[in-house]
Write a structure and sequence with these properties.
4 helices; alpha/beta; 7-stranded parallel beta sheet; 7 strands; Alpha/beta knot
Length: about 140
């Protein structure tokens, strides 16, 4: 099972793209922290009509029961996504384009992973790579 957490996503196009990814990869929910959007034109799958989009003041407390919190962020203790072994049940959190993931979420993450690229990626592209990596490594959440 996969759920997606968004920490202060800034761009409505990224929010829509992430909802589209959630639908494509079979996520059960998108939980977001910050005042953002319920739908956007880039969400062509209309994830919001069929799945849960939940606003939360605290992503840590909103983590689905039994899920491991995985933050996607470049930090000193982050694991390379190439070598990462995904848990079966995951709550994958990505951060705002201009601010990243809040420190309290990073401190409470079960895992932090980074994507080995030369430059930083767009937040929806980074999430896409993490979700695709789950499939490549044998965890298929698609329904």
């Amino acid at each position: 099972m996969i759920s997606i957490g968004l920490c202060n996503i800034k761009n409505p196009y990224n929010f829509g793209s992430i909802c589209r990814l959630a639908g494509c990869y079979g996520a059960s929910s998108v939980i977001y922290q910050g005042d953002r959007f319920l739908k956007h034109s880039t969400d062509t799958t209309k994830f919001w009509r069929h799945n849960s989009i939940i606003r939360s003041d605290n992503l840590i407390k909103s983590k689905p029961i039994g899920s491991k919190l995985i933050s996607v962020e470049l930090t000193d203790n982050a694991s390379n996504l190439v070598d990462f072994v995904h848990p079966k049940s995951a709550f994958v959190v990505v951060g705002g384009e201009d601010s990243g993931i809040d420190q309290n979420i990073l401190d409470n993450s079960d895992f932090t992973v980074y994507i080995p690229t030369k430059h930083c990626l767009n937040v929806s592209m980074a999430l896409n790579l993490v979700l695709y990596d789950r499939i490549v490594k044998g965890i298929n959440d698609r329904r």
